[in-house]
């Protein structure tokens, strides 16, 4: 699987994403049908296959997840070799190539953002642990 195939694959089923494409709270993309099916199946422990993160959502919340329209356009272009804005990628108009480049760049930015958000989450977890430790220490010292 190359990086493009990984980018356009669903985080639940192993296939290429089918529209509508939703973005999970972990920032991985899934087919709306997959996440609906997974949550309706009453699986004990629904997980994102890409990061192993728990999917703690109610079925009704799925429609509030943001749509990944950009990825949808990208998939249309990459898989179907069609461009929503001109005829054929194979004819490779300058415009399509430019658009594809932009989409690739935005996708790279999204990857970076995701890493940063996850780092922040880790950091705030660490900070919360520090506070807990401090609280314990204070409580312990007060008991003396
Ligand atoms: Zn899927
Ligand atoms: Zn994930």
TrEMBL record:
Has the keyword Aminoacyl-tRNA synthetase been applied to this entry? no
Q: Which residues form a coiled coil?
A: 114-144
UniProt xrefs under SUPFAM superfamilies: RING/U-box
Gene3D superfamilies from the UniProt entry: Zinc/RING finger domain, C3HC4 (zinc finger) (3.30.40.10)
Q: Which residues form the RING-type domain?
A: 10-52
Which Pfam families does the annotation name?
zf-C3HC4
Keywords of the record:
Coiled coil, Metal-binding, Zinc, Zinc-finger
Q: What is this protein called?
A: RING-type domain-containing protein
Q: What is the lineage of its organism?
A: Eukaryota, Metazoa, Chordata, Tunicata, Ascidiacea
